[in-house]
Design goal:
6 helices
């Protein structure tokens, strides 16, 4: 029975909060031309969003009376983390090679891949969200470097807020 279930603790309101973290980083952070400060700002935003996401997953699961680490929950997390790890490794390599301008596209693409993969074990809107992140990533790859904060705000901010509201409304918070 546990195999047939889906991971339903994806937090809609947590996604909204994660989105506002990205919007704040874009509004308050340095311009992409200051690559080091820009990457640090977005890494701090990602860490903040990760903490918000993890906390709200646990809060939603507890409120619903379902454990997080069921088989679908483990599959969800094991599908999400490899692309995120790959993104971290590529970030170091691209930044070290002076190619920080590619990071928004790489981050959005790999996050989208992870969300699509993890979404196979979740509610149907999650893979659709991942596809939208991938589309945003493709767009970001071809945008001028100066648009880095705007692309990140639209992708990580706008998509998390939009899909967070959809998940909160349709799937209970």
């Amino acid at each position: 029975m546990e195999n047939a279930a889906s991971f339903t603790a994806v937090p809609g309101w947590g996604g909204v909060a994660m989105g506002f973290t990205a919007v704040a980083a874009a509004a308050l952070g340095p311009r992409p031309s200051n690559a080091r400060a820009w990457v640090i700002t977005w890494m701090l935003a990602a860490l903040s969003a990760f903490i918000l996401g993890a906390l709200t997953v646990f809060w939603k699961a507890r409120r619903k009376g379902t454990p997080v680490f069921t088989l679908p929950g483990r599959k969800f997390m094991l599908s999400l983390f490899p692309p995120l790890l790959a993104g971290g490794i590529l970030s170091l390599a691209l930044f070290g090679a002076g190619l920080a301008r590619l990071l928004p596209g790489v981050w959005l693409l790999l996050y989208g891949v992870g969300v699509i993969s993890a979404g196979a074990f979740s509610v149907p809107v999650v893979p659709a969200m991942g596809l939208c992140f991938m589309i945003a990533g493709v767009t970001a790859v071809f945008c001028p470097p100066a648009w880095g904060n705007a692309v990140m705000a639209a992708g990580f901010g706008g998509l998390h807020i939009l899909f967070g509201l959809i998940i909160a409304r349709r799937y209970g918070g």
